[in-house]
Amino acid sequence: MKSFEVNFDGLVGPTHNYGGLSFGNVASQSNSQQASNPKEAALQGLEKMKALMDMGFVQGVLAPQERPDVAALRSLGFGGTDAQVIQKAAKDAMPLLVASCSASSMWVANAATVSPSADTADGRVHFTAANLNCKFHRSIEHPTTSRVLGAMFADPQYFAHHAALPAVAQFGDEGAANHTRFCRDYGEAGVEFFVYGRSAFDSRYPAPQKYPARQTLEASQAVARLHGLSEAGVVFAQQNPAVIDQGVFHNDVIAVGNGELLFHHEDAFLNTDQVLAELHGKLQARGAQFQSICVPRDQVAVEDAVRSYLFNSQLLSRADGSMLLIVPEECRSNPRVWQYLQSLTACGGPVREVKVFDLKQSMQNGGGPACLRLRVALKETELAAVNPGVIMTPALYGTLTRWVSKHYRDALRESDLADPQLLLECRTALDELTQILKLGAVYPFQIN
To answer: Which residues make up the binding site for substrate (predicted)?
Structure first.
């Protein structure tokens, strides 16, 4: 039976703006308050989805969230009609309105952690929505995320869904941005690699001093238990606290893996030799030949990796066994990074080609190609059970580009978020989108 790694890319929402909400994310903070272009952002993301589809990869789409989140504002004491809630928040607490308008759900690498059926005790694909409790604007995402994933992967014969972990600091969970799966074939048992920034209960683990470590060891362990993963099929590794303090807020900013290959920076992990040895041993026991490509700090500094998002790339397996690396335009603009990538593809190793995409709108807010996608390994029978409305086709691409052009604004500034009309525009667009993607009622305004 054939198996696939399907990339479900997040569709950028109509309220895409540069609120500078993510402390520890250098790009998010440095571009705060600039005018955004939601229409361009959504179209750039759709172009990447279409390009991968055209290259023969199975590609899906994951819907954005309703914003502004009026219910969140109501829970913070703002009352009246929806329009009055927005106007009061704009007058008295603009930062809260900005947070409630965030389109950060576009980075669906943070939506959930996914374990394929070959790894789980009950032989189903397991999803755990991430609580994202480190940041208020992201912590409000998981209820809708769970409903959207439930509408996409609905058949309980094949799919199991878990609620987000308790929304407390000890179980901070940022989803697949800190999770990678290695395997010989997507349909065979693999090894799931969980990277954490700190331990919540054991002070012996070092922690960053400047920026928060968003993923805890305890959260990663809990997800592994929920998914029914065996000890032989997991490796837990601590991210280097020093790189977190340099702006590496998730592991996918400093490492990326796929198949039997880990592509990582020299400073990505603590106890690197031990981590690589454990990955090699557990994968070898499952018939796989683990490989790693370590990028030396004297060729690419951590600062260059963060600014270019070299590791926030998509590492894709091609039919001939080689790997394709999808990187943002910022990698080509950085001389040191681009020089390294040229040497990487010329050395005859597993990465044979690099393709560059313009994702400026996402990049300026702190998310690259890998942030925009949630990877789901599926067997043929499981893929057939996925809601077909969310699988990218030429027809769906055309429909979605027309939908974006119809509903999205060309420019959005902070002051525009106070306009109650923006909420109506968002709800009108999303109501139509749920029909396009055949999701049913997944948004609060459709349910309440």
So the answer is: 19-28, 110, 137-138, 214, 252, 365
pTM: 0.95
* 250 is an active site residue: yes
Binding site annotation covers 225? Answer: no
- Is residue 427 part of an annotated ligand binding site? no
- Residue boundaries of the structural domains of the chain: 3-67+102-447
- For the domain covering 3-67+102-447, report its CATH number: 3.75.10.20
Please tell me whether 365 is known to bind a ligand: yes
pLDDT along the chain (448 residues), means of 10: 95 85 45 77 95 97 97 98 97 94 94 98 98 95 98 98 97 97 97 97 91 95 98 98 93 96 97 97 97 97 95 95 94 96 94 92 79 96 98 98 97 93 97 98 93
How far is CA 128 from each of CA 145, 210, 396, rounded to the nearest angstrom? 10, 29, 27
- Which is the catalytic residue, given 174, 192, 218, 414? 174
Q: Does the annotation place 440 within a ligand binding site?
A: no
On whether the CB atoms of residues 379 and 1 are closer than 8 A, the answer is yes
Instruction: Consult the annotation and say whether 176 binds a ligand.
Output: no
Q: How many Å apart are CA 171 and CA 148, to the nearest integer? A: 23
- Cis link prior to 208 (omega < 30° from 0)? no
Of 16, 126, 142, 250, catalytic = 250
Q: What angle do CA 196, 253, 242 make, to 5 degrees?
A: 60
Each residue's pLDDT tens digit, 75-97: 999 999 999 999 999 999 999 99
> Which residues, 6+ apart, have CB-to-CB distance to 173 below 8 Å?
113, 128, 130, 131, 132, 133, 164, 165, 215, 216, 219, 220, 222, 223
The sign of the CA dihedral 440, 46, 369, 375 is positive
